[in-house]
Design goal:
By secondary structure, the chain is α/β, with parallel strands linked by helices. It has two domains: about 220 residues, no CATH class; about 100 residues, Trna Endonuclease, Chain: A, domain 1, CATH 3.40.1350.10. The chain is about 75% helix and about 15% strand. It contains seven helices and six strands, in the order αααααββββαβαβ. Strands 1, 2, 3, 4, 5 and 6 form a six-stranded mixed sheet that branches. Helix 3 runs antiparallel to helix 4.
Length: about 350
């Protein structure tokens, strides 16, 4: 909170000062939440676009494998009738096998690149990674079945005697389809490379956003502590007279802010009540609306009792107290002083 805002609050009448303070806190929270929500909605939209592109690719690849498998099954049905030109067919099949092995190597390399790209994705694409693993298992199974079919075809090549031209034509078509599939896999690798670059840029933006939010939280925390210190300073000036008029408590030692056994004590000093000296332990909070603040005061009271002995008067100074928490504090023996009460 800036010095101008602090001066503004000091000039306000006590009966409306607490309402302006509460409005200022709510405004800071709303601004922080709005910035976070808009930024992460954009990230979520980016993730949905990547997921849709990958699902479409998976569907196209499964359809291509289904068509290849149907072609091989039809080829196997007609292989029994081949009886001639065995040497030429063997040479063509060997070349096809070499092309198949090369295709497998290229496909494995492409899938390795796919896997490396997926590993660099953030936690928000975990479900997409699971879909990728399922796709890889299906692809490995399809290649295994294709390879088994080719091995069975090689075992029966010796019986081929007829209709070599027709078989050669179909083998050419299968080779052409494999070439097209190889081109599609190459395009997939390029798309994934571009996707990886975009995800890296997105990660940099998220990191910058996280750093900016951390700085904002630190600044807001500093402002809140400044306002709390202002309340403590007011208490040092007004609390002695207020205690004397309304509770018959005289201040023996000047109130100070100190540390006891590692705990920060906002208001500490020796007082006299009914001729008996005791210690006053005070906590300054902007708004008393949380029971945890009562437990904090009692924890510091116990520290003072262990350190100095004797009786302790617990006090909470605040701008505004919630009725339920105020009632609980009074029943627990804690004196609650609201800032508007010491102004007469």
């Amino acid at each position: 909170m800036s010095s101008r805002v602090l001066k503004f609050f000091e000039k306000l009448p006590p009966e409306i000062k607490s309402y302006f303070l509460e409005f200022y806190e709510v405004l800071e929270q709303e601004l922080g939440e709005r910035i976070t929500r808009e930024e992460f909605q954009a990230l979520h939209q980016e993730f949905l676009e990547h997921r849709n592109r990958f699902e479409a690719f998976a569907e196209r690849t499964e359809e291509n494998f289904r068509r290849v498998w149907e072609a091989i099954e039809r080829l196997t049905e007609r292989v029994d009738r081949l009886t001639v030109h065995l040497n030429q067919l063997t040479e063509r099949v060997d070349r096809l096998a070499e092309r198949q092995e090369e295709f497998e190597r290229e496909t494995e390399e492409n899938f390795r690149r796919v896997w490396e790209a997926i590993e660099r994705l953030t936690e928000r694409v975990d479900r997409l990674a699971q879909r990728q693993e399922e796709f890889e298992r299906k692809t490995e199974e399809n290649f295994r079945r294709v390879w088994e079919a080719i091995e069975r075809l090689s075992q029966r090549v010796d019986q081929l005697t007829i209709r070599l031209d027709q078989l050669t034509e179909r083998v050419d078509k299968l080779t052409e389809r494999l070439d097209k599939l190889t081109e599609r896999v190459d395009r997939l690798a390029q798309d994934l490379q571009r996707l990886t670059e975009r995800v890296d840029k997105l990660a940099e933006q998220v990191e910058k956003l996280t750093l900016g939010l951390s700085r904002t939280r630190e600044e807001v925390g500093g402002l809140a502590r400044t306002v709390a210190y202002a309340l403590e300073n007011e208490a040092y000036r007004h609390l002695p007279a207020f205690l004397r008029r309304h509770h018959g408590v005289e201040v023996v030692d000047r109130f100070v802010r100190t540390y006891l056994n590692g705990e920060e004590v906002d208001i500490f000093g020796k007082v006299r009540r009914n001729g008996e000296e005791l210690y006053l332990v005070g906590e300054a909070v902007l708004k008393l609306d949380d029971r945890e603040k009562l437990r904090s005061v009692w924890r510091k009271v116990e520290i003072v009792k262990e350190e100095f002995g004797g009786e302790v008067l617990p006090v909470i100074v605040t701008h505004m107290a919630h009725p339920e928490v105020l009632d609980r504090a009074r029943r627990a023996g804690i004196l609650v002083v609201q800032s508007f009460e010491w102004v007469e």
